[in-house]
TrEMBL record:
Family to which this protein belongs: Belongs to the short-chain dehydrogenases/reductases (SDR) family.
UniProt key word Transferase: no
Keywords: Oxidoreductase
Pfam family, one: adh_short
InterPro entries: KR_dom, NAD(P)-bd_dom_sf, Sc_DH/Rdtase_CS, SDR_fam
GO molecular function, one term: oxidoreductase activity, acting on the CH-OH group of donors, NAD or NADP as acceptor
Domain Ketoreductase: 11-191
Protein name (record): Gluconate 5-dehydrogenase
Length: 256
């Protein structure tokens, strides 16, 4: 009974930006909860390597290479996935990039690149998947990957923080629009996890020293610690949870 609340058997899940890092860990976690997963990234070779990693763990993942920043490519890809594999019941809109520069010197192209992926790209994916969920009338689960930067600022990452703050309001707005269609739109907001995106920080002992004092849990997060929150928001257990950001941050946003 309680287990059924967290069972994803028979669901098809698309996880964007899942050739590495958080996306790949979440794809694996959703598959272990029973979902069929579709991996996405821009680079087909990296995607194939990610699928091979999952295959070693006994998970047969599908691959859908496309660029989330191109709304036409996104819509074509989602149509193609559904024609080939059936309705997407779970979208994890995870694809995101990080670029660092002091704001005063930030080149326009850097600003645009981050917003194009982290904000526009999430919207295009939610739109392409959401409009089909609405048309089918059988609901669905949309999970945006937010950040502690949905709530907190930090020097040198203005476009990233701006995009993640915007995702908080996008998540709420899509909930406001789509909840009546049985669609739940929620966010998982990770704190600091060691991934490709945080390499610069992981390799900086001063940052780790600061972080372990700043985070109540006193350490970096482990990728597998994001799985529970994501499975919850993808599963029947969260059917009346909507427009919510679930922070998985070792207490960081709760404490000064
Ligand atoms: C930074 C980090 C963060 C993390 C993460 C925290 O420079 O502060 O890269 O932004 O990547 O998003 O939730
Ligand atoms: Ca990533």
């Amino acid at each position: 009974m309680t287990r059924a609340l967290f069972d994803l058997t028979g669901r098809l899940a698309l996880v964007t930006g899942s050739s590495q890092g958080i996306g790949l860990a979440l794809a694996k976690g959703l598959a272990e909860a029973g979902a069929r997963v579709v991996l996405n990234g821009r680079d087909p070779a990296k995607l194939a390597a990610a699928a091979a990693t999952l295959a070693e763990a006994g998970i047969a993942a599908e691959q859908a290479p496309f660029d989330v920043t191109d709304p036409i490519a996104v819509d074509d890809a989602v149509a193609g996935i559904e024609a080939r594999l059936g309705p997407i019941g779970i979208l994890v809109a995870n694809a995101g990039v990080m670029r660092r520069s002091p704001s005063a010197e930030m080149p326009p192209a850097m600003w645009r690149e981050v917003l194009a992926t982290n904000l526009d790209g999430v919207f295009w994916c939610c739109q392409a998947v959401g409009r089909r969920m609405i048309a089918r009338g059988r609901g669905g689960k949309i999970i945006t990957i937010c950040s502690v930067m949905s709530e907190l600022g930090r020097p040198t990452i203005a476009p990233y923080a701006a995009s993640k703050g915007a995702l908080r309001m996008l998540t709420r707005t899509l909930c406001a629009e789509w909840a009546r269609h049985g669609i739940q739109v929620n966010g998982v907001a990770p704190g600091y996890f060691a991934t490709e995106l945080t390499n610069a920080l992981v390799n900086d002992p001063e940052f780790t020293a600061w972080l372990t004092r700043r985070v109540p849990a006193g350490r970096w997060g482990r990728l597998e610690e994001l799985v529970g929150a994501t499975v919850f928001l993808a599963a029947p257990a969260s059917d009346f949870v909507n427009g919510h950001l679930l922070y998985v941050d070792g207490g960081m946003t709760a404490a000064l």
